[in-house]
Amino acid sequence: QEPSSETTECTGINITCSHPNIQSNEYIYWYRQLPGRNPVFLVFGHKDSKLVPDLPGQLWLVADLRSSALHLAQPQRGDLAVYYCALG
């Protein structure tokens, strides 16, 4: 996972996470931690693409067995956060 990424409002961004040693029965989990808050679960995936239910049309996950990317289509100031990926 890149240590940091920047964009401007309404300019889409991909947050990528590399996981070359993922097992076939493992999933990729993404979390978002807003400033001063606890991390919140966003989405999980395996080998697919899906919308994030809480932010339809704004955020989606694309994953394969080597990496995943969380795409923010039109980020706003409220999306400023630390984004984490994890395997499980």
Helices and strands in order, then pairings?
Elements: E1 13-18, E2 28-33, E3 40-45, E4 49-51, E5 59-63, E6 67-72, E7 82-87
Antiparallel strand pairs: 1-6, 2-3, 2-7, 4-5, 5-6
What does this entry look like structurally?
This protein has strands at 13-18, 28-33, 40-45, 49-51, 59-63, 67-72, 82-87. By secondary structure, it is an all-beta fold. The protein has one domain: Immunoglobulins (Immunoglobulin-like), CATH 2.60.40. It is globular, with a radius of gyration of 12 Å. The two termini are 16 Å apart. One of its GO terms (cellular component) is plasma membrane.
Features:
88 residues; mainly beta; four-stranded antiparallel sheet; three-stranded antiparallel sheet
Total DSSP helices: 0
Helix-strand string: EEEEEEE
Q: Roughly what is the average pLDDT, rounded to an integer?
A: 81
Q: What is the CATH-assigned architecture?
A: Sandwich
How much helicity do the residues have? Answer: under 10%
Cα distance, first to last residue? 16 Å
